[in-house]
Design brief:
- The protein has about 270 residues and is of the alpha+beta class.
- The protein is built from nine helices and eight strands.
- A five-stranded mixed β-sheet has the order 1-4-5-3-2, covered by helices on one side. A three-stranded antiparallel β-sheet has the order 6-7-8.
- Helix 5 runs antiparallel to helix 7 and helix 8 runs antiparallel to helix 9.
Amino acid sequence: MVDLFEQDILKNDRQSSKGNQLKWMNGNLWYKADYTGYEGLSEYIISHLLKYSTLSPEEYVLYDLEQIRYKETVYCGVRSNNFLKEGWQIITLERLFQSFFGKSLYKSIYQITSNEGRLRFLVEQVERMTGLKHFGQYLNKLFTIDAFFLNEDRHTHNIAVLMDGEGKFDYCPIFDNGAGLLSDITMDYPIEGDIYYLMKCVSSKTICCDFDEQLDISEELYGNQLQFTFTKKDIQNLMLGAENYSEIVKGRVMTLLYLQMHKYGYLFQTKE
């Protein structure tokens, strides 16, 4: 357990449709507390399963479970290393577009009627503003993760790039997947709800409300950029380290993942 204090609190510049989750920075570590359910478990499971993928370690942030004592309350949550190099900052696509053009990227995207046109516009604008190449391939990785793990919070306030003090840009490692795996049991996905029904209720937020349509369009335009190798046994082993979450919660997460493994079988490589 870690004790955290008010002076460690981080201001949340990245807006979430779910509200403001408590976040801290202490030393070279970032901490996040569960807010609407089991966001910490979601971050932990998703990031550790990404170790069993074609992503390189520097392409994503690894989260470990942590109990956090703040004031008089003990929270379940996670910790991660600070991935920012000195002089660099995270800047969301929404904030970046606002600074370049003085208007909302989200609204500009949704003025375009076709979903393919929206994705092309998003990629073209980011590459134009940042000079980064292959942003479409990067988005395919995000869309693959979002579709598989049902991360419903990937809007333009929650996709980011890195920027240094001289205006140079780089790719941001993939992070902030706490809204996945039906983690919001307070408002939208009650733990007693039917998992098959709840999975149908989750919607994406980047270029349309359908995860599979986003993923299909990105694969057609930019190819499939992410494959998995994890097994059911790997999932079960990860759950052994999540003793602060109930068996009901862990059971629901495992059921969801098994269903997604069946649905997205084409994303899996055979372990050598």
